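Lab notebook, bench 4. The sequencing result for the construct came back, and we need a structural model before the next group meeting so we can plan mutations. Quick request posted to the team channel:

Model the 3D structure of this chain.
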Amino acid sequence: MKKTDYKKMYEKIFKILGDLTPLRIDCGQLCEGACCKGDDETGMLLFPHEESDLEIRYTAADERLAICDGTCDRSKRPLSCRIFPFFPTIDDKGKVYVELDYRGRFICPMIEHYDKMNFNPAFLKAVKKVGKILVKDEECREFLHMRTGEIDFYHDVIIKD
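Done. Here's the predicted structure in token form:
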């Protein structure tokens, strides 16, 4: 089995995403950049083998969180930051979908008001393409599977109630 060159994989992923954003405007204007102000509870999860120049903290599950004070170099943002508030989810057969990341409901007004948003279709297409790359790697596929379960839980318990 061929070993994944994670550095090249993330370079390719970041190139696909480029400067695309969920909206054609700076969505940080809607929430004063809430997703860029992480702490021990609200940092952004790093994907498997993803490197970051940001401060790194660990969760109880020993996952890495990137913490930012809102002033990072945008070209060095982790993948979770680049795709938020969306996430590439997968089904049991490994098919990739792009869903709102309901785990961020309390910090991102786009999730609460998704039906009023005019999301950038090029961004959504890029996130799906990224998901198709990630799912090819066993560790990344497992990471996507775990996050998909969390997102589904938040959707079912929090959003539908």
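The beta strands are 44-45, 55-58, 64-67, 86-90, 96-100.
Will bring this to the meeting.
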